[in-house]
Amino acid sequence: MTPMPALSATAAVPSARRTPDRRTGLCAGLCAALILGLVLLWWARGGWVFPLDDAYITIHNARVLIEGQDRNYGVPALVGASSLIHLALVTAVSLVLPGEAASYLVAGTGPVLFLAGLLTLGRRLGLPWPEGTALALVGLAFGAAQFLNGLETGLVMAAVTWTLVLALKAPSRRLALACGLLPFLRPELGLLSLVLMTRQARLRLAAGPDRAAALRAVAADAACVLLAAAPWLAWSFAETGALLPRTIAAKQAFFGVPSASLAESVVYAAMMVAAGLGPAAAALPFLGRDGPAWVFGGFVALFTLGFAMTNWEVLGHNGHRYTLALLPIALFAVIRLGAVHGLRPVRLVILAQAAFALSTLPQITAGQERVAQYATVARWAQANLPQARLLIHDAGVIATASDLPLTDLVGLKSPDSIADHRRWTAPSGGAERFRAVDAIARRSGATHAIILDDAPDRFWGLLVDDLRRAGWRADPLETGSARGPYILYRLTPPSPGAAPAP
User: What is the mean pLDDT of each run of 10 residues along the chain (502 residues)?
Assistant: First the structure.
């Protein structure tokens, strides 16, 4: 078993004087190579088709902010936006670049910052540079299917990594500022801010006998958190009337809460987390028992509990992308595993994680093909149905490819839909979703619908059955593109007085 230096909770293991310079140069070189690779990838593909429709919701929201109006949904830009910071960055870059290029550029900063953070973390904890570099590159490869999804996933992973680096140092104002920003990158990162600032307050109070000075330091930290959070809170409240995004509430109403006890839900959520993190999840029990271990282990526990109490099934959506916020902590645990048991298990985890990463890469191409077909259908509808009013459930691509009036059945971009799902869908576990779909369709005056034919799972495809069950006629239209997976339907409303099928 190869020995490995003991790891300090707050400082790096001393190393030879030349090692930090060599590692700094290696870090800079790898990040530069990654940037060049991203540029060449964009050039070789002649642009980039994002594999998730949600990426185009951000592009649409950025356009609304720039133009000052939403021609599709008629709501403020922040409605349906989970990450205010990501939206702000995409909007800023969209002032000089087209929307897709702006989103690609912002998404591309995530893996670069994530790689630099992992290399820095390994150096701080004294991990030998070959294993540290391999672990960082494997972490990068594992997230490859998500880094270029056009969403904030890569930025979240980078932010958690650098926050971890800051937390290993002495208490600082920089950590407090970071904690003020985290909830506006992803709402669930507010839990990480909570545990980090609780620990920092305890460290301040335990630092010395001067109680008054310690209290002043804690108050200054709180002021930094509020200073960083205030602009985002004000923006959210001004646009939506809420301090935090309502996207989780919309999804909870539409998808419903799985019928399981809290204990069962926690087990299912933990299984989803483990599936999303791959072999590195096995290292989480080796976080240790010191301050950082309790903080980051506590965040993992709160994260899992939070999704268990709302909807653990969401953790499996879009390639388990929400769980990747925990990947930096799992990789930190891998390093700590090496501190206890030597480098051999670290190398085994690296190899297993690399093999697991290869299985995630096909997700990109499959998602891109699905999105490209959706865009073709959307453009056909724009050109051939100028008076149409569309019901949709994927709210992004159609809003970037057309100016048609749209109603989101889920409720992310059409908040009125949430009340219908709270009335019918959620209480019935989805059994009476057809009543909510009927109410939404009637209120919107929908003439057409675009629904994903997701056979064999057929969750989204059931929305067509819901319409027909409520008395609507839904006739597929030929749009000149390959059949499916997105199908455009002409809708005919039920006869007056007709009652939905039981």
Answer: 47 41 77 90 86 95 96 94 96 94 94 94 89 92 89 96 93 96 95 95 88 93 97 94 82 79 92 94 88 90 92 88 95 89 88 85 81 93 94 95 95 93 90 94 96 87 94 91 84 76 56
Extract the tokens encoding 158: 């980078």
* Cis, peptide link before residue 496, omega less than 30° from 0: no
Element (H, E) at 118: helix 99-124
Beta-bridged to residue 451, according to DSSP, are 487
CA angle centred on 196, ends 263 and 159, rounded to 5°: 95
Instruction: Look up the pTM and report it.
Output: 0.91
Instruction: Please count the other Cβ atoms lying within 10 Å of the Cβ belonging to residue 68.
Output: 7
- What is the rounded CA–CA span in Å between residue 7 and residue 10? 9
Alpha-carbon distance values, 102 to 45, 47, 55, 88 (Å): 16, 11, 11, 11
DSSP 488: E
Chain centroid to Cα 27, Å, comes to 26
Q: What angle do CA 435, 438, 441 make, to 5 degrees?
A: 150
